[in-house]
Amino acid sequence: MGDDLYPHRLRDVFDKPPLLFARGTVWADDQGVAVIGSRHVSDNGRRIASELATRLVERELTVVSGLAAGVDTAAHQGALRAGGRTVAVIGTGIRRAYPPENQELHRVIADHGTVFSQFWPDQQANKLTFPMRNGTMSGYAIATIIVEASEHSGTRIQARKAVEHGRPVILMSTVIDRTSWGQQMADRPDVHVANTVDEAMRIVETVLDRPNEIERLFLDALTR
After folding, report:
1. Which pLDDT score, from 0 to 100, does residue 98 have?
2. What is the pLDDT of residues 10-38, one digit of tens each?
3. 0.70 cut: is pTM over it?
4. How many CA atoms lie within 13 A of 67 on its CB side?
5. What are the structural domain ranges in the chain?
6. In whole angstroms, what separates CA 166 from the centre of its chain?
7. Quick one: residue 68, left, alpha or beta (phi over 0 = left, psi -120 to 50 = alpha)?
8. Which of 60, 191, 204, 211 is most buried when burial is the number of CB atoms within 10 A of its CB?
9. pLDDT above 80 (res 220)
10. Among 3.40.50.450, 3.40.640.10, 3.60.150.10, 1.25.40.10, what is the CATH number of 3-223?
11. CA distances (Å), 21 to each of 108, 118, 143, in order?
């Protein structure tokens, strides 16, 4: 991918991948929110992921996720059903689909958004590729929402990377209830807890308003 197409927000993070492969339509200035979580999602978690995706699309935001089973699949599918744009950041090469049952979803996302990979096209998944892609997804998105997670879920890696990148993290309350790392993470700067989809979306709105808030503070300082 040429420098002119390299995602602008990803440029800002210290551990950005030097190379990205893509299928689909690349928006260098894409404004997206990551919706991620456990592969072994509950029915309620699946519903929340889908509803979040729908609400983000209604807000004209891109739904970013990792094309894994569970929460990721529900988020991508929810965005597509709502007629919106969705981006998958995957932990394999661009010519592979993981899990295999998401091969068709991989193709549909490429038709209606973008599939990104930082690995050589035929790279298979391994224990290092998924943590690396979580860091890339964090850097790409303006914020990360974690719907459900287990104590040893890989989503905790993205939460930690998002904090390192200076990106907001929104933990749905079930993550706090079920994991010690979620409880510890809740005390970190710019980590928020939401009990409902409405609360999560209100936090997203405050994130979107930050540039305006900075401008208001600047203008207020000038008028004093």
Report:
1. 92
2. 999 999 999 999 999 999 999 999 999 99
3. yes
4. 33
5. 3-223
6. 14
7. beta
8. 204
9. no
10. 3.40.50.450
11. 17, 6, 22
Q: Report yes or no: 52 and 82 within 8 Å, Cβ to Cβ.
A: no
CB 138 within 8 A of CB 10: no
C-beta separation of 82 from 56 below 8 A: no
Q: What are 11's two structure tokens?
A: 């440029």
| Cα gap 187→82, rounded to integer Å | 34
For the record, the structure tokens of 126 come out as 């391994």
Across-strand partners of 64? 34, 87
Mean pLDDT within 202-207: 97
Across the chain, what does the average pLDDT equal?
94
Name the residue with tokens 């914020």.
143
Backbone angles phi, psi at 18, to 5 degrees: -70, -20
CA distance 216 to 220: 6
List of E strands, 150-211: 169-172, 191-194
- Residues 146-193 pLDDT 10s: 999 999 888 999 999 999 999 999 999 999 999 999 999 999 999 999
